[in-house]
Amino acid sequence: MSQNSVQLTPTTEGITTMSSPYTMTIGGQQVATDQTFDVVNPSTGQVFAQAPSATQAHVDAAFTAAQDAFPAWAADSASRRSALRAIADVTEAAADDLGHLLSLETGKPHEDSRWEFRLAALWLRYYADFEMEPEEIVDAQGYRATVVRRPLGVVAAIKPWNTPIIQFAWAIAPALRTGNTVVLKPSPFTPLSSLALATRIAHLLPAGVLNIATGPDPLGERLTSHPVPRKISFTGSIRAGSSIASAAAADLKRFTLEMGGNDPALVLPGADIAAIAGSIFWAGFMNNGQICGDIKRVYVHKSQHSEMVEALAEIARSVKVGGPFEDGVQLGPVSTRPQYDRVVELLGEALGSGARAAAGGAPLDRPGFFVAPTIFDNVDDGSRIVDEEQFGPILPVVSYSDVEDGIRRANRTEFGLTASVWGPDPELNAQIVTRLEAGMVSVNQHGFGVSPHLPFLGHKASGFGVENGRWGLEEYTQVQVIGTPADGPRPAIDDPALAETHTG
Predict the structure, then answer these.
(1) Is 136 a catalytic residue?
(2) Active site (annotated) includes residue 326
(3) 3-state class of 363 per DSSP?
(4) What is the pLDDT of residues 408-451, one digit of tens each?
C-alpha cells in the first residue's frame, strides 16, 4: 500500500481526484478533491492554504472502507498494539516540521505546537501498552462466566480547532486499541496538521482503519447522521453536542460528548496571593485561554480581591504576545476569526457595562486576531463575561463575601468540567473541594486530570461519557459475557483487553 497513491479503489469509486498539496486519507489512499476551502493564518488574518472539501461520496467511501476493514482489524490485537507504537514514533518525530504547520493554522507558539505532538505520542503509547484482564466468575453449579469487552465497530470522531493533534490522539488511540475503525473530521479551521499527520501514518495501518475527511458544514452532520458508525466522539459546543445526541438517538449510536466549561477557581480567605497568582494566571491563559479546562472565573474573598486583581494584572502586562515564530513569544492570537469576533464583543460589552480592565481590554494594533491578555474586575455574576465561557485571553475576578457565597457562585453555571480550590488550610480545602460541581476538581492546582491514565469528564452540560484511562477505553467497547463449564477449556480470548473475534 503506497501512502502517496491516489489511484481509486472500489471503496473510492465515483470520487474525482486531482493533484493537491493536502489530501484526505480514505481507504488507505491519499484523495484530493476538486472542491477546496480556505485555511486562515490567525497571526496575519490572511488565507495561506486550501484544504480538500469532502463530498457525500467521500463520506460514504470513508465509512465503507472503515466498515470493510473492521473484521480483520478487530481480530488482530498484536498488530493494533504494534501500529499504535509506530504511530506514536512518527507523531513524535513530526513535532518540528508539522509543529510549524500547526502553528501556522492555530497561531500558537511553535514550542507549544511541538509539545502538542509530543503529548499526542504519550497518549498513543499509553493505549498501545494498556492491559485489561477479562473477569471470570464461577457460580455454585460450576459454570464459568467470562466477561470481556468487544469493539463497537466504526467510530465517527469530530474534533475541535484548539488542540487538533492532541484531539487526534485522544480519538484514535483508545478506538484503535480496542479494535474499532475510525472516520475522523478535524475542525475546518485547523485541518492541515491532521491531514499531514494522517498521510505520514497511513502506511502503518491496513487500508480503511483510519480515514480523515475535511470540510466545512454540513460535513459534521453527514458523519453523525450516517448509518454506518456505531459511536460518535465529539468535542465542541453545547449546541452542537445536543444536536449530535439527538441525531445519534435516531439509530441508537453511542456517543461521548465534551462540551466545554466555565471553570472556576475559588480562592479561600488567607490564601498567599503572591504565591498562587502565577499558577492561577497560567491555568487561565494556557493556549491563550483556548482550553476547555482553563480557569475562566476567579472568585476571591473581598478582603483580598484587589490584591489578586493586581497580581494577575502584573503578570498579564509582562507577557509577550506575538506570532508563533517570534523570539520569546508566550501567547499567540485567538485561533479563529469567529472566536476573535466573539472575544472582542465580550470585551466591549463588559467595558460598556462598567467592568475595569486592570490589564489588556482591547485587540492589539497589528494584523491578525491578537487580543491583549485581559484581567477584569468590577464584574459580577449575571454578566456575560462571567456567565459565559469566554474561550480567549480574558479572566474576570469576582469578589465574594464568605465561603458559602463563594461556593454558591462557583457552582452557579450550566457547565461542570473543572474547578479548583486555593487556600492555606488543608482540612478546609479538603472539605470545600468535594462541594464543587465539576468532573475534575483539585486543591492548590488546576487541571491535574489531563493525563492519559486519569478520567477526563464533565458534569452537567459539560459532557456525557468519559475520555482517557481505563474509563475512556471502555467507552469504545461493549461488554460480552461468555459462559463455559468451569472444568472445560476457557474461551479463546487471546487478548487481555477483549475477545479478538469479529462480532459482526
Answers:
(1) no
(2) no
(3) strand
(4) 999 999 999 999 999 999 999 999 999 999 999 999 999 886 89
